[in-house]
Amino acid sequence: MKKKILFTAFYVLFTAYGSYAQMYQQKMATFLNLLDNYYVEEPNIDSLVEIGITEILKKLDPHSVYMNAEEIKKANEPLEGNFEGVGIQFQIYQDTIQVVHVIPGGPSQKVGVQDGDKIIFVDTAKVAGVGINNDGVFKKLRGKKGTKVTIKIKRSGESDLLEFEIIRDKIPIFAIGAQYMAALDIGYVKLERFSATATEETQAAIDSLRKLGAKKIILDLTSNGGGYLNQAHSLSDLFLSAGKLVVYSEGRSQPRIDLNATSEGDFEKGELVIMVDQNTASASEIVSGAVQDWDRGLIVGRRTYGKGLVQKGYSLPDMSVVRLTMAHYYTPSGRNIQKSYAKGVDKYHEDLEDRYESGELFDSSKIKIIDSTKYYTNSKRIVYGGGGITPDIFVGLDTTWTSKFYGKLVRSGSFNQFVLEYVNTNRVALEKEYSSVDVFIKKFEVDSAFLSKFYAFAKTKKVEPDSAENFSRSIPTIQNQLKGLLAQSLWNTSAYYQITNEQNPIYVRALQAFTDGSFQKYGIATFDSKKSEDKMKPLDKLKEKKKEKKNKTTKAIKK
Predict the structure, then answer these.
(1) Greatest mean pLDDT range, 371-375, 514-518, 544-548, 550-554
(2) In the chain, what are the domains?
(3) What is the mean pLDDT of residues 6-23?
(4) Of 19, 64, 281, 510, whose CB neighbour count within 10 A is largest?
(5) 117 is catalytic
(6) What is the pLDDT of residue 5?
């Protein structure tokens, strides 16, 4: 029965390509039946069908994929905004599960589990000193809402194990990674993913910062790989006035669909800077492209990833899913920002490495313009498509601070593990001395004595600098990371970014943009500007491609 279902799955897949493929359906079905009936050994038809589907999709584009039921669940969890479990972040250190962070409002916090606790037993099973891995922890602690799990923990200062009965519940996965006041009138928001609650959380973050005096916003989309298209649309709506085109999609079998801003946005005039880098992709590029094309804000950083394809999921009879690329999406000016995959999937995924080796990540003059067609923003600035969003203000990758020793420290987990032990031992004293994040930032110093303790700890993990290496250039970064991780352990991730962003060149340049005339230079309305544009004139593009592509490359946008 299962084999028949899998054969049917193949029929469904091929049918998606049109009626002309019927001969090939029969060919594949005949081949699978031959294997099933006559092959010398018992074939694993399940595996063969999945391999077949996967290999076919590889020949199409890098983002058309096949996923079984378990893969679908794992892929959707970060976007759906929750999973069911006990609500802790953990790491395995010295063969013991250590609680790095208790998620606020989660089931573990409600019963009194604390950061730094070590989990020794889960129900009746000992989990310390038995070689448990991350997957093993997930299997033991995650579970359906309403189910119970008992843990016994070792807590610093307590001689006996403490026992907690935890009722599992839905655990929120937040889209916002950090928010804080970067200056007297500048708020910073780090958006990690375009999950189902991304717009709602971003709106709440901006509202909160505005109450603290923020009139200008830095939206950090670095390393944001995207998510739901509808969230990219609604989040862009926060910044654009009603009627303005946010994005449109179009494909061979899909007619053009326009998504426009509404009257819902309430940050349409405040000065806006968006931080991007080479890992900013998909939904993040939609927001960045719309903001750039309408001259609504400044894009600061490095050229984005270049994912401009729209996928739609089709269920197969065994509950697996084929996600097929159905359309390209285009920015308001008509840019298709999808980078080329003509040389195959493997070469496509090597693109970021190629950018590094070519020097593009360090020097804007090395950026390759794939689509030579010129597009124009609302104020007639020239922009290009064919490979991501090129920022208005380029910030090169800074590697001057790196060293082999620093790399070893990161790979060994020394930073997190040292901070965890230090806070476990000194939490009471630290919380007494530093009453707030601001006090900690001003007063706490990672001095030479503190560094010596850290180096001694790293040495126990066999991490030492090479005798010939001068790693002094890495010391400020080591100090910054240690201080940031300490703040995160004592407060939250916002505290971490508030400290570590001080050494982030993109962030530093984004702050400068508010005061160095960059908005005026690029024709971006400032907060005090009374400039108002009710309509955008058609954005004419200079054609440098073949005439047969003219109708497709000469899009114009209107309000």
Answers:
(1) 514-518
(2) 2-59 (no CATH), 82-172 (2.30.42.10), 176-246+262-305+332-394+538-553 (3.90.226), 404-507 (no CATH)
(3) 53
(4) 510
(5) no
(6) 47
